[in-house]
């Protein structure tokens, strides 16, 4: 069972008590990411995530680092397409310090002008690092190719905008979004719920803005675009994408089984054919991405340019065979066991439980018990897997390629498969 409450100021708090551990994982979730940005705000959510660590009204950047280190805790953050999360892991007797620091980060950053200009350089280096990492770059290009709205924009933002943002821009954006109705505090670990709520009420009682801008949902759509970037790289980096499943939809479970069978592990068809049989790639895999209202099913392969045509032909051939011949019973059972086993093993991570609770409550205002999820996995049938495979692979794909003469390889990618 989960602990759950909505405070009078609108902040939602959710927790799962794990009495067998001596730690607490706690995170403050904000419903703002690159998906929520306008074209002239792209990268602002991530920039703010960096800046809150540079000092608050109560702590300097050094204080933040030292106070957590002194108790052997961990403090970090991330920005995604749909949200930003600041999280801490501490021993259960240091929970109040974690709540105090997280409240400082979320509610009381100072956005010092000097620190902003220094951190601007750090973010620009992070953007440059993606540009110099072809495997990361090709996935950024794939997002541009397969979505028609803000989902196509990079989380880090373009360097041009990062160079232009001022402190006033940042404060206005933060003031609109860092409000209680757009935030969730989640915890998993060994805690006392009543004592924890008293900490939350103490440190999260004074939001600078009680009523900001509720983040609107904007429907995104999958489009079958193609992008290429010529770079002098040793490998050709290939991505293809198909329409997938939106988050919080039950079709995610058969899609995940399909993913495991086609390219999600070492026993998958693409891994066995492209890497083991042909020896034409070190890295080849598939994965799904799910967001509110839209999703995608993607694949990646990195290969020598002289093998690019062969690899693309083999990938598409393996997908066609999957649709034509279906799955074997052994393949189905193995792929489903991978999904079930991975989920059950993940339950042993209190960090994973905190993240699942926080994300579910933030984006869907609901939680799902492990028993409910396992039941959904157990209910997957071979027919449901083949139904989702046909729906996905028969659609026209998007594609992105990075490498020498990248443009010419797009011509080797066909439309939706006929099986």
Question: Could you characterize the architecture of this molecule?
Answer:
A hairpin with a 4-residue loop joins strand 4 and strand 5. The chain is of the alpha+beta class and 419 residues long. Helix 9 packs across helix 15, helix 11 crosses helix 15 and helix 12 packs antiparallel against helix 14. The chain folds into 2 domains: 201 residues, Cytochrome Bc1 Complex, Chain A, domain 1, CATH 3.30.830.10; 187 residues, Cytochrome Bc1 Complex, Chain A, domain 1 (2-Layer Sandwich), CATH 3.30.830.
Which descriptors would you attach to this protein?
alpha+beta, 2 domains, 18% strand, globular, 6-stranded mixed beta sheet, 16 helices, 45% helix, Cytochrome Bc1 Complex, Chain A, domain 1, 5-stranded mixed beta sheet, 419 residues
Q: Using only CA atoms, what is the Rg?
A: 23 Å
Treating each run of at least 4 consecutive H or I residues as one helix, how many helices? 16
Q: Summarize the amount of helix as a percent range.
A: 40-55%
Predict the CATH topology of the largest domain. Cytochrome Bc1 Complex, Chain A, domain 1
């Amino acid at each position: 069972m989960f602990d759950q409450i909505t405070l009078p100021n609108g902040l939602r708090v959710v927790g799962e008590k794990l009495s067998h551990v001596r730690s607490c994982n706690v995170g403050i979730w904000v419903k703002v990411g690159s998906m929520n940005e306008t074209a002239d705000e792209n990268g602002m959510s991530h920039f703010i995530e960096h800046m809150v660590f540079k000092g608050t009204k109560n702590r300097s950047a050094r204080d933040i680092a030292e106070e957590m280190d002194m108790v052997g805790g961990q403090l970090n953050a991330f920005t995604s397409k749909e949200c930003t999360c600041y999280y801490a892991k501490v021993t259960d007797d240091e929970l109040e310090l974690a709540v105090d620091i997280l409240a400082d980060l979320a509610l009381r950053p100072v956005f010092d002008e000097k620190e902003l200009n220094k951190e601007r350089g750090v973010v620009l280096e992070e953007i440059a690092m993606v540009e110099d990492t072809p495997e990361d770059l090709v996935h950024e290009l794939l997002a541009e190719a397969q979505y028609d709205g803000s989902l196509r924009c990079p989380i880090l933002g373009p360097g041009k905008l990062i160079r232009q943002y001022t402190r006033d821009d940042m404060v206005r954006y933060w003031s609109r979004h860092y409000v209680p109705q757009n935030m969730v505090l989640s915890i998993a670990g060994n805690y006392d719920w009543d004592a924890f709520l008293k900490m939350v009420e103490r440190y999260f009682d004074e939001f600078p803005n009680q009523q900001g801008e509720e983040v609107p949902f904007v429907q995104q759509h999958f489009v079958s675009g193609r992008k290429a970037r010529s770079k002098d790289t040793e490998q050709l980096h290939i991505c293809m994408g198909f329409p997938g499943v939106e988050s919080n939809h039950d079709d995610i479970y058969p899609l995940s089984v399909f993913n495991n069978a086609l390219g999600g592990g070492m026993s998958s068809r693409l891994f066995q054919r492209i890497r083991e049989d042909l020896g034409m790639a070190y890295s080849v895999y598939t994965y799904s991405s799910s967001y509110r209202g839209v999703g995608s099913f993607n694949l990646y392969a990195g290969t020598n340019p002289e093998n690019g045509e062969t690899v693309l032909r083999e990938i598409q051939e393996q997908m066609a065979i999957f649709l034509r011949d279906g799955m074997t019973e052994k393949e189905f059972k193995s792929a489903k066991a991978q999904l079930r086993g991975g989920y059950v093993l993940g339950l042993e991570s209190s960090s994973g439980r905190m993240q699942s609770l926080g994300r579910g409550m933030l984006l869907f205002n609901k939680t799902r018990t492990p028993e409910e999820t396992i039941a959904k996995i157990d209910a997957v049938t071979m027919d449901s897997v083949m139904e989702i495979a046909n729906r996905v692979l028969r659609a026209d794909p998007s594609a992105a390629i990075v490498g020498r003469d990248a443009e010419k390889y797009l011509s080797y990618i066909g439309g939706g498969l006929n099986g």
